């Protein structure tokens, strides 16, 4: 055993020629069609629908979704490549795509075939957008504490409650909504939450306040209010009372996408700082001539390459069906997003005063990357999740006894 994985083979990364072809094609498209307008997304806090349509024409919304559900196919690595490249140019586009994943994955994993056939193809083709409504005023990382309620009346459920910070809610055609359908059980506080698909325009569904945030502008965080919203039982995702498990299984898979967001921003900042060091002169020399700049760039490069390895290792393990991908994804999420903040900050330092001028386009990455450390499980929560997932995996393998694991968690 090469602890905490089993063998050296578990640490390998295997990329296919198609992965590199995908990366190149996505980068070329984004540099040509999106990069010239990326600052406008931040200035106006809006991504034009025309841009979203063009991404759909490129098939970027359907990467990672099986062809029989209208997608382009591709594995987790492919999806991570797209997320990294989107974040390198325009992070809000990655948020919109990542929120689509938060809608699609629970349906693909736990939904009925009818739900998959109805809701996934429009998402994959870019004809519709999804949202994921979990967070409430009372509860962020504490998903088990949500207070939105769903009561069964005949063959329908009636939902009442309020959600906040819901990405995509203003453009979403459908959203996965989590609501408590029964009281938690002793020692099973998470039990009693159920997931439902709610469609845009449902009676009693109101999209409320848009929260004015300073990062990831162009992707909106919204308030969503449910006032006696009725949904048919066939729109229930998975078993009654098991919504928390559905959410956690979803986050295990989307977490690596958030790590990829941080990676893309770090990549952009490093590239710009490196290029600037060979353009700007001081005291008659290029900045790159100074040892302090060389040290800084080298440290940034080491952090970037380490982060990249963790992100793609998590994706590779997921594609191999390895249970270990879950704690590696948590490691990648907290490590990469925090490293990205450091790299962006160092890039600003190298640019000096130019680095904090909005038109340069670097300072926005610092505002953007900070949010990735908070959403989809704040980073300190990821440290806890990674440890518990590791314990769970080692318990299954018999390395740690169940009694000891229970006493710790």
From TrEMBL:
Keyword Oxidoreductase belongs to the record: yes
Domain of life, per lineage: Archaea
Key words of the record: FAD, Flavoprotein, Oxidoreductase
Acyl-CoA oxidase/dehydrogenase middle domain location: 131-229
Taxonomic lineage: Archaea, Thermoproteota, Thermoprotei, Thermoproteales, Thermoproteaceae
Species for this entry: Vulcanisaeta souniana JCM 11219
InterPro entries in the record: Acyl-CoA_DH_CS, Acyl-CoA_Oxase/DH_mid-dom, Acyl-CoA_Oxase/DH_mid-dom_sf, AcylCo_DH-like_C, AcylCo_DH/oxidase_C, AcylCoA_DH/ox_N, AcylCoA_DH/ox_N_sf, AcylCoA_DH/oxidase_NM_dom_sf
PROSITE patterns tied to this protein: ACYL_COA_DH_2
Pfam name, any one: Acyl-CoA_dh_N
A GO MF term: flavin adenine dinucleotide binding
Cofactor: FAD
Descriptive protein name: Acyl-CoA dehydrogenase
Similarity remark: Belongs to the acyl-CoA dehydrogenase family.
Domain Acyl-CoA dehydrogenase/oxidase N-terminal: 17-127
Domain Acyl-CoA dehydrogenase/oxidase C-terminal: start-end pairs: 241-390
């Amino acid at each position: 055993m090469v602890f905490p994985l089993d063998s050296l083979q578990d640490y390998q990364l295997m990329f296919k020629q198609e992965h590199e072809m995908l990366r190149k094609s996505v980068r070329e498209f984004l540099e040509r069609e999106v990069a010239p307008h990326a600052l406008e997304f931040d200035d106006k806090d809006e991504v034009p629908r025309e841009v979203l349509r063009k991404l759909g024409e490129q098939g970027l919304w359907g990467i990672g979704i099986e062809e029989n559900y209208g997608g382009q196919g591709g594995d987790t690595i492919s999806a991570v490549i797209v997320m990294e490249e989107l974040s390198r140019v325009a992070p809000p586009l990655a948020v919109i795509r990542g929120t689509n994943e938060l809608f699609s994955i629970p349906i693909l994993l736990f939904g009925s075939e009818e739900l998959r056939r109805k809701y996934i193809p429009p998402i994959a083709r870019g004809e519709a957008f999804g949202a994921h409504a979990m967070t409430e005023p009372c509860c962020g990382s504490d998903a088990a504490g949500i207070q939105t309620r769903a009561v069964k009346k005949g063959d329908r459920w009636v939902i009442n409650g309020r959600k906040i910070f819901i990405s995509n809610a203003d453009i979403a055609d459908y959203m996965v909504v989590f609501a408590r359908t029964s009281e938690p059980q002793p020692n099973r506080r998470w039990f009693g939450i159920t997931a439902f698909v709610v469609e845009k325009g449902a009676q009693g569904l109101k999209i409320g306040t848009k929260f004015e945030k300073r990062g990831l502008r162009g992707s909106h965080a919204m308030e969503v209010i449910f006032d006696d919203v009725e949904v048919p039982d066939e729109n229930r995702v998975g078993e009654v009372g098991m919504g928390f498990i559905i959410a956690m299984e979803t986050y295990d898979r989307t977490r690596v996408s958030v790590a990829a967001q941080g990676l893309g921003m770090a990549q952009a900042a490093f590239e710009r700082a490196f290029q600037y060091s060979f353009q700007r002169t001081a005291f008659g020399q290029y900045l790159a001539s100074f040892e302090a700049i060389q040290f800084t760039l080298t440290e940034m490069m080491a952090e970037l390459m380490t982060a990249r390895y963790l992100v793609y290792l998590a994706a590779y393990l997921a594609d191999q069906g390895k249970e270990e991908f879950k704690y590696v994804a948590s490691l990648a999420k907290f490590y990469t997003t925090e490293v990205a903040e450091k790299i962006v900050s160092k890039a600003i330092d190298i640019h000096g005063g130019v680095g904090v001028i909005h038109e340069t386009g670097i300072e926005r990455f610092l505002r953007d990357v900070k949010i990735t450390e908070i959403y989809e499980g704040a980073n300190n929560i990821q440290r806890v999740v990674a440890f518990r997932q590791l314990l769970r995996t080692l318990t299954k393998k018999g390395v740690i006894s169940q009694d000891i694991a229970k006493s710790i968690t």
